[in-house]
Amino acid sequence: VSSEELTRHYLDRIEKLDERYNAFITPTPDQALAQAREADKRLAAGEGGPLTGLPLAHKDIFCTRGIKTSCGSRMLDNFVSPYDATVVERLAQAGVVTLGKTNMDEFAMGSSNETSYYGPVKNPWDETRVPGGSSGGSAAAVAARMAPAATGTDTGGSIRQPAALAGLTGFKPTYGRVSRYGMIAFASSLDQAGTLTQSAEDAALLTQVMAGFDERDSTSAEKDVPDYCASLGDDLKGLKIGVPSEFFDEGLDAETGKAVETALDVYRQMGAEIREVHLPNLNLSVPTYYVVAPAECSSNLSRFDGVRFGYRCEDPKDLLDLYERSRGEGFGPEVKRRVMTGTYVLSAGYYDAYYLQAQKTRKLIRDDFIRAFEEVDVLMGPTTPTPAFGIGEKTDDPITMYLNDIYTIAVNLAGLPAVSVPAGFVNKLPVGLQIIGNFFDEGRLLNVAHQYQ
Ligand code: GLN
After folding, report:
1. Which residue spans of the chain are classified as CATH 3.90.1300.10?
2. 138 alpha carbon – ligand 1 mean position (Å)
3. Ligand 1 centroid vs 156 CA: distance in angstroms?
4. Is 299 considered catalytic here?
5. Is pLDDT at 438 greater than 90 in this prediction?
6. 263-320, pLDDT tens digit by residue?
7. What's the alpha-carbon Rg for the chain, to the nearest Å?
């Protein structure tokens, strides 16, 4: 088929199905068809690469030139980006066609896509349930086959958790592997771009293009990008898999735990060696994250002042009124909660007790992983404690909501790469197996995920 035919196929599905799922904030059919025709020309001329002409959806956190980039917030509902994020630019250069921008939790703060200004997204496996978050629109778009693949971002689990709850492969590379330029910042020391796909092979193909040094992001890694597809067939005999006992705590749903055990058996049969390891400070990861992430977000979100871009309140009386009402009306409750917590933990008198303390516990968590990787090649465990929960079920209780990321958050604090792969079903709902790799060991990680599929 031509890229135009393929693109039309997905655009038709978006038009038919998205009323039901609310996965897209802004579909971009005209741009998509123009890009598809361009790709067809390149292909006819014998040019282009493996991704030329393939459609994809972008999380609405990535700046896209000339297209609304809302980040799921009223604050940016009127924002049309003047430039492309590096991720968007590199994929476009590879010939990828953009189908549209997907729904997400406001400024990526959430685990259920319920904090979006544009309303919740429904999980295609059960429409009464959440698709996870914050990349919930990307997950629902791929799960409902409105897009073959989508980009996402993961600050504390926002790629892996929705991938698990929607039955997909969600891949978060090492911190610094993919440029954050043009990706609206939530918590800059944790944010990382990645993919939601139907397979690890698709993740490898996309990451190949997305990864690599970018001089416009000072934290992007100056490291060569290996050929991720080349290692996809490597034998797993002798692979050392560590299973952190702390992942199998009382919070883990028994059936979800069983699905993970079954997956471990599959690796055992492939000749891998499985041993127990320990991450003794894992229980500190949620409290540490909920100091570090809000602290960074309070600083990052200070740029939304109603002056330069984004939402501005009506008839401000004076400058202070402009700031207060623009931010008060432009941000939703979860974002306000984070900005207030973050400002508090950074304020004089509390900085040492909270922020500095969190930096120390963050190091302890990271050191646990470094020690574990002296013994094993990858770590495995559940991605989430349970399958998808009901829409509205956890919205009144932020703490219960935060605990949904208990197995994913430590990985961001350490900066490691990790992937969630579908590991079967619990009560007809998908659950994920999480595989964590060593720093910049994405090639091996993707191969380990690939062999399971
Ligand atoms: N659910 C976590 C939070 O609310 C992680 C979000 C993310 O990874 N962007 O902060």
Report:
1. 1-281+360-453
2. 15
3. 5
4. no
5. yes
6. 999 999 999 999 999 999 999 999 999 999 999 999 999 999 999 889 999 999 999 9
7. 21
Give the tens place of pLDDT for each residue, 12-68.
Answer: 999 999 999 999 999 999 999 999 999 999 999 999 999 999 999 999 999 999 999
- Which 8-state DSSP code applies to residue 185? P
ipTM over 0.90: yes
Tokens 């990787």, residue located: 373
Provide the sign of the torsion angle of the four alpha carbons 277, 278, 279, 282, taken in this order.
Answer: positive
Span 378-407, mean pLDDT? 94
317 catalytic residue (yes or no): no
The catalytic residue among 73, 112, 116, 158 is 158
Helix (H/G/I), strand (E/B), else coil: 226: coil
> Residue length, the chain?
453
Give the fold, CATH level 3, of 1-281+360-453.
Amidase signature (AS) enzymes (3.90.1300)
Residue pair 52/42 in contact by the 8 Å Cβ criterion: yes
103 lines ligand 1 (CB under 6 A): no
Q: How far is the CA of 5 from the centre of ligand 1 (A)?
A: 36
User: Which residue minimizes the CA distance to atom 4 of ligand 1?
Assistant: 110
Does the beta carbon of 64 sit less than 6 angstroms from any atom of ligand 1? no
Q: Which of 104, 109, 112 to mutate to test the pocket of ligand 1 (most atoms within 8 A of CB)?
A: 109
